Amino acid sequence: MSNNDKNLKDMWNKTESVIGTSNFGSSDIEQFLTGKSHSTAQMIKKTFFLDIAIKSLVIILLGIDIFLYIGNIKVFVICLISILLLTGLIIFQLKMLRAFVKVEDYSKTTRDKLSSMLSYLKTKFYGIIMIISITYLFIFISGTLIYFYVTYGMVRPMDIVDVVVFLMFILIGIGFNFFVYRAQINYHIKHLKVCLTDLNENALKLVSQNIEMQRKQDRINKLILTLFLVLGFILLIAIFMNAFG
The pTM is what? Predict the structure, then answer.
């Protein structure tokens, strides 16, 4: 167990100790746990909303790029494909958000809510991270086009070295986002596990069974999402190299 996990569990145990030695009843404990689950849910929803807002802003920037480069068919194609992919990702993200809200709002008890949120994060883990991380690709493309227009008044000719450097920046940015958001979601998962473990030792066993069932159901969705992202990334890079090469 890492220091962060140990500290989190120690804080939870101290809280339990205070509750147990005071005049708090089961309703007070339930209220305390409800507050914990609500704060975790709010942070997760904020992560979704922030990325959707960023994607929406990038779509606006791509629209500006189309206006700036009127008559440049290659830039138009790049921007159009980017907008379509971003729109598809936002729609998919909104569906994931609605599913999470349903999990949070319609759970009958605090234990159900904690269990449902943990199951959701464990099964949707890589899907959430991939959708958020790939945003950087479109930020880079839209920002680069605006930079070229402001600096050169056109798309600057690029050689193979420029293309390789740009691809490295894109991969580094996506990778950085991936690890940052993976750490954030892992924190939420560990926090929920600590709460469930102290609430009921058998809760995690039931959650694990539920997670395994949901993973089997989500395999097709994960495959479609992965193919969508990979093909979109390859297509954009191919057009990007053709336009700037």
Answer: 0.74
